[in-house]
Hints:
Elements: H1 5-15, E1 19-20, E2 27-28, H2 31-42
Antiparallel strand pairs: 1-2
Amino acid sequence: MFSRPDLxxxxxxxxxxxxxCRHCDMEFExxxxxxxxxxxxxx
Length: 43
Ligand SMILES: [Zn+2]
């Protein structure tokens, strides 16, 4: 069960560089987008 390829796929996904909002759990590929989101949604 623990050696399922799904786990590796998940790990790969985490390795892709994303910027996570610290207020909610949204992720952004662009730092500027995260900034905009943070301002718009959490200001
Ligand atoms: Zn957010």
